[in-house]
Structure formats: structure tokens, C-alpha cells
Amino acid sequence: MPLHKTEAVVIRTIKLGEADKIVTLFTKELGKIKAVAKGARRIKSRFGSSLESFTHINTTLFEKGNSSLLRIRQADIIQPYFHIRENFEKISYGLYFLELIDKFLLERDVNKRIFSYLTDTLSHLNSSDEQKTLFIQFGLQFLMLSGYQYKFDRCIICGDAPLILFFSAYKGGLICDSCAKNNRHGLLPINKGAALYLYALQKSDTAFEETTSVGAIDEAVEIIKGIFTDVIGRPLMSQEFIDNIKG
Ligand SMILES: [Zn+2]
Q: Which pLDDT does position 163 carry in this prediction?
């Protein structure tokens, strides 16, 4: 009965039978996995609140027969991220991050860099109020760590940097006014400020942030959502929560 000890973030849970849960975990050592937590829904469960979404845990898992589902033997909380749960806006962005991990990553595909980026991002989401910037940074970094590189400095078709008015997730970058005439499919409007902002964040040039207008940040949020909709094939379910945040 091989044992696995690993850090993990709880992505989501579903009920199983009378008292159990199936938990989707993004683990550091095994990648994304599903595991059964026996008795996790009993009031006096030994798991306590360690298996709620967002929670960063240390866990011990074991293989059970030929099942693809692992079993959770133990789960100890490293970080509960309480403040994320107390605020609708934080929950909304947090759920988007978790859903992205769930939809995007294959089971047992180990990615320690994305794992540590996720825990860093949840820590920031828990402690700061810069949700939109965090969302854009997470999106760009997640794409880069997954091998996607979008171009925000010049037109992806003609390679020039004339009047930029659009972004195409499908083409992978900015589209200038004249190239847009022949490439109308799925274009999102973008202003120069938002393009510069995305370019700076992609290069981790955080000094740029203070001079960025609210409008450019909002536009950049739309671009990131547009990219993931294109990559996944439809909007994430939790995008609706983000869309309903006022202001
Ligand atoms: Zn062009």
C-alpha cells in the first residue's frame, strides 16, 4: 500500500454516499488527483475543516486496490485562507483560479511551479485588495508556465506597431487597425494603455502598475478572460461571479 505525502490545495469536493467526500486536490508531488475522504461529512470527522475549497494542506494519501481514486489518510491545514471566504469578490476570483487548475491541468500531471504560483496567489488574494491586478498577473503567469506566450507589444500579423485597436486570443496577440480588416473573427477591443500594462506585467515590470488607469486594468481583465475562454473553448463557470462584481 504505497503512501504519498504531499502538500496540496483543495480544489473542490463532492458528496459520496452517506458520509464520505470525493476531493479534487492539486498536489505538489502528484499533480491534480481525486481522492476519497472516508467519513469526512460526519460532524466529528477527523478531517475537520481541512478539506474545504482553497485550503492549503499537508496530506497523506494511499492507493486502494486498482481504483484510480486515492484515499486520504490524513490532512493538516497549512493555511486556511480565511479572508478569501469572507469576501464575495475574493471568493469569485479564487474560484476562477481553482476552476482553471481543474479544467486546464491533466490528472497526475506534476507541475511544481504552477503549484507554488497558486499558493503564492492565494496568499496574496487572502491578504491584499488588489484582486484585478492579481487576476491579470495569475492569468499571464499561468499561461506562460503552461507554454502559452501571447504578444502584447506589436501586431501579431504584420509585426509592426502602428495603430493597435484589437486583441485576438485565437491569433495570440494584438491586431493593428489595418490587419483587423481581414481578421474580424473574435476580436476584443484594446487600448494602448491596456496593451502596455499587459506587456509590462508579462515582463514582471511592477513599477508600471501605479500609472495604469482603472479603465486599462478593466480592459486587461477582459483580455485574460477572453484568452481562457478561447483556450478552454467556453467561458469558465466561475467567470459569471467575476462578471457580477460591481465597480
Ligand atoms: Zn498589423
A: 76
Domain ranges, ordered by start, for the chain: 3-80, 83-243
Q: Following CA atoms 180, 215, 99, 229 in sequence, which dihedral angle do they give, to the nearest 10 degrees?
A: -10
**128-154: pLDDT as tens digits:** 998 999 999 999 999 999 999 899 998
Give the whole-angstrom CA distance, residue 223 versus residue 240.
15
Tell me the CA–centroid distance for residue 41 and ligand 1, in Å.
57
In degrees, rounded to 5, the angle at the alpha carbon of residue 200 between the alpha carbons of residues 186 and 54 is: 75
User: What separation in Å is there between the alpha carbon of 164 and the centre of ligand 1?
Assistant: 8
Strand partners, 23: 13, 35
Q: Which of 149, 133, 111 is nearest to 231 (CA)?
A: 149
Q: How far is the CA of 198 from the centre of ligand 1 (A)?
A: 18
Domain 83-243 in CATH 1.20.1440.120? The answer is yes
User: Distance, CA 159 to ligand 1 centroid (Å)?
Assistant: 6
The pTM score is: 0.91
Ligand 1 center to 151 CA (angstroms):
12
Say yes or no: do domains 3-80 and 83-243 share a fold. no
pLDDT tens per residue, range 12-49: 999 999 999 999 999 999 999 999 999 999 989 999 99
CATH of 3-80, one of 2.40.50.140, 1.10.3470.10, 1.10.3210.10, 2.60.40.1240: 2.40.50.140
pLDDT tens readout for residues 88-118: 999 999 999 999 999 999 999 999 999 999 9
